[in-house]
Amino acid sequence: MKKFLCSILMASAMFVGFTGGTADAASKATAKSGTYITVHNANVRANAGTQHRRVFTLKKGTRVQLTHQKYAGKQLWYKVKINGKKGYVSSSLLKRSTGKAVAAASHTKGGGSGVVKTAMNLRGIPYRFGGTTTRGFDCSGFIQYSYKKNGKSVARTTTGQFKQSSKIKSPRPGDLVFFHNTYRKGISHVGIYVGNNKFVHAGGKKSEVVSLNNPYWKSKFNSFRRI
């Protein structure tokens, strides 16, 4: 009798182990590459499935790189990478990026020209540390205001805007220009590229247009970036 019970228990354990192994294999991540773009605001989770914690959120139109794919039940999830961060997004919230789609996602509702037009109209407004209104701007407040007027929400601080954006080699009007080691070490100043190697910013005594060939700003230049 004891031998019979032991046999049943051993068989049950083998069966559980076998089915468990099958489940693990079915949910194993496999390599997946490509550039995709979010079609809606998307929660990025620690693992595949809505039961896992949200690690950060991507806004609609954000371009991401895929590294893996995995099924959670019948739902396919993609592991994405952006600005050094990683996590899983439901495949239903992403579509493959094309040159046309990326270009559209890179601009605000009014286009890069809309941001530039708004920013240029703010020239002459006094510089004010911590300023976010037409009574006075600091550099990041100037950026936030110009983008907001064109339907785009951006971070309040220079470092926040830097983290929110992606580095580019060839800027278009409306993209951001970042500088480092101005009044502090690291990323410390930002302006809006207006074309012809010039940018508009809130700096000095007032908001104005400056050439990137200016010796001071040339020595402090860090990167062009796009939101």
Automatic annotation (TrEMBL):
Domain SH3b: start-end pairs: 31-98
PROSITE patterns, alphabetized: NLPC_P60 (PS51935), SH3B (PS51781)
Domain of life: Bacteria
Signal peptide range in chain numbering: 1-25
InterPro entries named among the record's database cross-references: NLP_P60_dom, Papain-like_cys_pep_sf, Peptidase_C40, SH3-like_bac-type
Keywords: Hydrolase, Protease, Signal, Thiol protease
GO molecular function list: hydrolase activity
NlpC/P60 domain ranges (all copies): 109-227
PANTHER family in the record: MUREIN DD-ENDOPEPTIDASE MEPH-RELATED
Similarity annotation: Belongs to the peptidase C40 family.
Name used for this protein in its record: Peptidoglycan hydrolase
Organism field: Sporosarcina ureae
